[in-house]
Design brief:
Length: about 400
């Protein structure tokens, strides 16, 4: 398939800028946050300039237009991920809030108690680990987890022991933000459902690449965030089956999420509004809707193939550099386009700084996945992540920058 990356890049104004004394920006940090196309920027500007108002409350024309745009964004999200109805889509401020919403609501519902078990994995982002730790502390439940193999896959041989009649929730990353590993959510979900457990998928890294159809993924709940998929910060999504949303108690209290209020009690609105207390990130929802329009107008199959080509070239180029260790799967099969690595004798932050001096933006650290790094026997790593606007020349610049760092620190 052909993919016109040059035409795509013209939609992203920031890619025209220079950094560090006039060097062209090479942005390889999209797993952290993606850049935004002009169409998204313009949509948010138009909202503030033309119909900025609060939603669901004002009876004037601006309020009607704002509400229509906000709910229109919800409908776009539902269509993009294959939801059966837009009422299954709850807006949050990010995926972290979406997962916290689920953890707190499950705890408050009485579904989780002492002796129950929650299963996670060693490759989780802290956002899909800490909320479950907190829930276990509040309820007396026990946290258990899948280990990660040396090649960056989940040890599925543990499933028979980990998922049992005590399991209430299995929370799993669809795609690792560090390793790029795409986990078999459907397979794990089938086992979890047979045991009567709910399944939550953290899809923050997979939805931006068009990899999620909630009707076939197998999860009961899916969380993701707008800023990793060409949208703005401050807006995230929780998808869940309608029946489950009806059963769960609200996460936050306030305006808009109510049906009726008395001094001593309240009744709550139907989902999704039951979970959207107060003034929501309206402009951000509009921006996310525009981002989904943008992605939907692309050939996402071709975009995915382009990203896989970038990943394949990067894996080959880095494997050719002596002293570089790639974390996670060595090939592109069942792997997303995040690539973390270490360089013998050079700290990841030093690699990042040398690359930054060449105009190459990557991330260094533990990437909010400290337990995973410990499991792999490293303190931290450098991560390059590719998206639809990156080029093969930028992959070569990454490899050249690593070699420059090795020479600078005298390791080759």
């Amino acid at each position: 398939m052909t993919f016109d990356v040059a035409a795509i890049r013209k939609d992203f104004p920031i890619l025209d800028r220079t950094v560090r004394g006039g060097k062209p920006l090479i942005y390889l940090d999209s797993a952290n946050t993606s850049q935004k196309p002009r169409q998204v920027i313009d949509a948010m500007t138009e909202f503030y300039e033309r119909y900025n108002a609060n939603i669901h409350r004002a009876t004037h024309e601006l309020g009607e237009e704002a509400t229509e745009a906000y709910e229109g964004a919800r409908a776009k999200v539902a269509a993009f991920i294959g939801a059966s109805e837009q009422s299954e889509v709850v807006f949050t401020k990010n995926v972290s809030e979406a997962i916290n919403l689920v953890a707190y609501s499950l705890g408050n519902s009485g579904r989780i108690g002492a002796g129950d078990e929650i299963v996670v994995t060693e490759m989780e982002h802290h956002s899909n680990l800490v909320p479950w730790q907190l829930l276990c502390q509040r309820t007396g439940a026990r946290l258990r987890w899948f280990s990660v193999t040396k090649d960056g896959r989940l040890d599925l041989g543990q499933a028979g022991d980990l998922i049992n009649e005590r399991t209430k929730v299995v929370a799993i990353a669809h795609q690792s933000n560090v390793l790029g590993t795409i986990n078999p959510v459907s397979e794990i979900a089938a086992r979890a459902h047979a045991a009567g457990a709910l399944v939550l998928a953290d899809a923050a890294q997979s939805v931006p690449h068009g990899l999620v159809d909630v009707s076939s993924l197998g999860a009961d709940l899916v969380g993701f965030t707008g800023h990793k998929m060409c949208g703005p910060t401050g807006i995230g999504v929780l998808w869940a089956r309608r029946q489950l949303l009806e059963e769960l108690p609200p996460f936050l209290g306030g305006g808009e999420m109510i049906e009726s209020v008395w001094m001593d009690h309240s009744t709550y609105a139907a989902p999704p509004h039951k979970f959207e207390a107060g003034t929501m990130p309206i402009a951000e929802a509009v921006g996310l809707g525009a981002a989904i329009d943008y992605l939907s107008d692309l050939d996402l199959t071709a975009a995915r193939a382009h990203e896989q080509q970038l990943l394949g070239r990067a894996l080959a180029a880095l494997c050719d550099i002596e002293g570089v260790r790639i974390l996670g799967p060595a090939g592109t099969a069942d792997r997303g386009s995040a690539l973390s690595f270490t360089v013998k004798g050079v700290h990841p932050h030093d690699i990042s700084q040398v690359l930054d001096d060449a105009g190459v933006a990557v991330r260094a650290g533990h990437h909010c996945a400290w337990p995973l790094h410990r499991a792999l026997g490293v303190q931290s790593s450098t991560r390059a992540s590719f998206y639809l606007y990156n080029t093969m020349d930028e992959v070569e610049a990454l490899a050249d920058g690593i070699r420059t760092a090795q020479k600078f620190f005298g390791t080759r």
